[in-house]
Design goal:
With about 650 residues, this protein is of the alpha/beta class. It has 3 domains: about 1-250 and about 295-345, Queuine tRNA-ribosyltransferase-like (TIM Barrel, Alpha-Beta Barrel), CATH 3.20.20; about 350-485, Archaeosine Trna-guanine Transglycosylase, Chain: A, domain 2, CATH 3.90.1020.10; about 505-635, Archaeosine Trna-guanine Transglycosylase, Chain: A, domain 4 (Roll), CATH 2.30.130.10. About 35% of the residues lie in helices and about 20% in strands. The strands form 8 sheets. Strands 6-5-4-11-10-9 form a 6-stranded parallel beta sheet. It has a 6-stranded mixed beta sheet with strand order 26-30-29-28-25-27. A 5-stranded mixed beta sheet has the order 17-16-15-19-20. Helix 8 runs parallel beside helix 10 (about 200-210). The longest helix is centred in the middle third of the chain and has 29 residues, at about 290-320. The radius of gyration is 28 Å and the shape is globular. The protein binds guanine and zinc ion. Zinc ion binds near residues 272, 276, 300 and 303. Zinc ion binds near residues 272, 276, 277, 300 and 303.
């Protein structure tokens, strides 16, 4: 049902197959009110929507709609043959305190009217209720979940995660729901948080809920209809959204943009170029009758919403989702705070790709908390370097080229970086150490960050030299002003070993690159590495990835199992040894440290290498998913 097409941050672009109909996620379901549609189904389809969400409870409670739905089915009732999801009346439960159907009745009703994706009648517990209440209501939601999943026939069914604002209850709820094996996992009970701009609390709930939800099912964030949230929620692993906001806001005369909402009375301009906004002016719009004005605003609101969804997907393909999140965070200070809260969770590193098509941009101090930065600082510990440390200020990249020097047998030369703390010249070309940009000068957050990281790194060295321009870091050591003193014979082997350790883990560098010979390009960069006339591997020019060849694989396999390996099921061995991709459904085992876009080795169950290639998803994901590429094979080794 789900295939991952691209990965960035903890988010993904996936292809969902729902009853033979395809949806690309992240996706936004527009909410359709079957009684009073502000936009026609044709208009919604024309904007590019192939899935909608409506409310089965409303249909159930209206005699005419109910009998038509029972007779002709919901697709015919709405005149829509795309994916139809229905909610269950839970929102009415939250809004009005009660509903006139039982959990089983509404489940059966959804099934009978032929919806594609139904939802259990969960209890949307509000934020900050007493813990006993949250627990009690969660128990009832879980009871209904068990009963519903048992009674489910052919409809896909969503099991909503509840638990109010209690992280442990959210985790428990997610774990229990996941055990029951639903097809979709909504995160519920968050509408009041969004209405009150409590984005930090929202983010915590998403992270704690997501932690125990499986990768092979889509996660829906219930009631998140404002486009300024899509990028952040997607970066945290939400795949689906629903928007009633486009219509509710329209009726209240509100004009949505990705950076906030305008009240129509205050609009002098229409700051958008969608089809409706280019057809009129703010003045004319204000003069329209309410019905026409609502229609206009709904068209605009829904257009900017789907546009943002497309932008999020494009950013995932490009590897620039965190940059989009940073941009959106400037829409509201509480959203920026929420981004900081999200980034303070170190666990985000688990799913973060190791390399991206686009450069890492320093967007402000929150960027120092990004998983890429934390990972780099962690991976620095893999380097085993027994030399004198020399710290230089940042210059134009590539640093070694601008300085005209590399680390030597005596000196380990590092850049004091305002984004990554310390950048050893040995590993400068590995993503994102060269592939990042920041404004000139230092801001206060960077200075504090550098002090901390540089000091910690320097503490592992007996002798430290630092350039006089770095005195502000307050380091112990010897200051100098002439870098010429540290030039000498380039230590190519030391560089390769550092790259190996940094990329594949401690010990990998020695195994891979001792007694090898490197071919250096005209621009002074290492290209291929040979042992005798056998190719060990290639250092990719674009991102410093270590692409292994036969000899390299042989050497790296000396690291204990399962380091850097993906074990293929025996039914896939033949296929993969012909040079074709290894699919997720055929992954038996994997090194849990494997991240998206990392170079890996595919082995059989006897640990015999059959291919080398690039992991397209993390180890966690390839073990959970059944479809889609796990490893794109570069070399077969059979
Ligand atoms: N719509 C908005 N929030 C919720 C929720 O918590 N549960 C359900 N079923 N629908 C919702
Ligand atoms: Zn517009």
């Amino acid at each position: 049902m789900i295939e991952i097409r691209a990965r960035d941050a903890s988010g993904r672009v996936t292809e969902l197959n729902i009853n033979g109909k395809k949806l690309t996620t992240p996706y936004l379901f527009p909410v359709i009110d079957p009684r009073k549609q502000i936009l026609s189904i044709e208009e919604i389809e024309k904007l590019g929507f192939n899935g909608i969400i409506t409310n089965s409870y409303i249909i159930n409670q209206n005699r005419e709609l109910r009998s038509r739905a029972m007779e002709e089915g919901i697709h015919s009732l709405l005149g829509f043959d795309g994916v139809i999801m229905t909610d269950s009346g839970s929102f009415q439960l939250y809004k009005y305190g009660g509903v006139d159907v039982s959990p089983m009745e509404i489940l059966e009703f959804q099934e009978n009217i032929g919806v594609d994706i139904g939802v259990i009648l969960d209890i949307p517990t509000e934020p900050d209720v007493p813990r006993e209440q949250a627990e009690r209501e969660l128990e009832e939601t879980l009871r209904r979940a068990r009963e519903s999943i048992k009674a489910r026939k052919k409809m896909l069914l969503s099991g909503t995660v509840q638990g109010s604002t209690y992280p442990e209850l959210r985790e428990k709820s997610a774990r229990k729901m996941a055990e029951l094996g639903f097809d979709l996992y909504p995160i519920g009970g968050v509408v009041p948080l969004m209405e009150n701009y409590r984005f930090s609390d929202l983010v915590k709930i998403i992270i704690h809920s997501r932690k125990y939800l499986p990768h092979d099912k889509p996660v829906h964030l219930f009631g998140a209809g404002h486009p300024m949230l899509f990028a952040l929620a997607s970066a945290l692993g939400c795949d689906l959204f629903d928007s009633a906001a486009y219509a509710l806001y329209a009726r209240e005369g509100r004009y949505i943009t990705t950076s906030g909402t305008y009240r129509l009375e205050r609009l002098r301009e229409l700051p958008c170029s969608c089809a409706v906004c280019t057809s009129t002016t703010a003045e004319e719009l204000k003069k329209l009758e309410k019905k026409d004005r609502d229609h206009f605003l709904a068209m605009h609101n829904l257009t900017v919403s789907i546009e943002e969804i497309r932008r999020v997907r494009q950013s995932i393909h490009d590897g620039s989702l965190w940059e989009l999140v940073a941009e959106r965070a400037r829409a509201h200070p509480y959203l920026l705070e929420a981004v900081r809260v999200a980034l303070s969770y170190g666990s985000l590193e688990n799913l973060e790709p190791v390399t991206k098509k686009s450069a890492f941009f320093y967007t402000g101090s929150e960027a120092l908390l990004r998983p890429e930065v934390r990972r780099h600082i962690k991976k620095l510990k893999r380097l085993k370097i027994n030399k004198k440390l020399v710290l230089l200020p940042e210059v134009e990249k590539p640093y070694s080229k601008t300085y005209g020097m590399m680390s030597t047998e005596e000196y380990h030369i590092c850049i004091a970086s305002k984004v990554f703390g310390v950048i050893p010249l040995e590993i400068e070309e590995v993503y994102p150490l060269t592939q990042h940009e920041a404004p000139g000068g230092y801001d206060e957050a960077q200075i504090n960050f550098m002090k901390k990281v540089v000091k910690e790194y320097a503490s592992g060295f007996e002798k430290v030299y630092f350039h006089s321009s770095l005195e502000f870091l307050g380091l112990e050591g010897e200051s100098f002003s002439d870098v010429e003193n540290f030039k000498g014979k380039n230590d190519i082997e030391g560089k390769l070993i550092a790259i190996g350790d940094y990329y594949f883990g401690e010990g990998a560098g020695e195994l891979l690159f001792s007694e090898t010979r490197a071919r250096i390009s005209k621009t002074g960069r290492i290209r291929e590495v040979y042992s005798g006339d056998r190719l060990v591997g290639v250092i990719r020019a674009s991102d410093g990835s270590v692409v292994l060849n036969v000899e390299g694989v042989k050497r790296l396999l000396k690291l204990p199992f399962p380091s850097n390996r993906v074990v293929a099921h025996e039914d896939a061995v033949e296929f993969v040894s012909q040079g074709r991709s290894l699919f997720c459904g055929f992954v038996e085992e994997a090194d849990m440290e494997i991240k998206p876009y990392q170079e890996v080795i595919v082995v059989d169950s006897q640990d015999k290498p059959i291919a080398a290639g690039r992991a397209m998803v993390s180890a966690e994901e390839m073990l959970s998913l059944k479809h889609g590429v796990a490893v794109r094979v570069r070399h077969r080794l059979g």
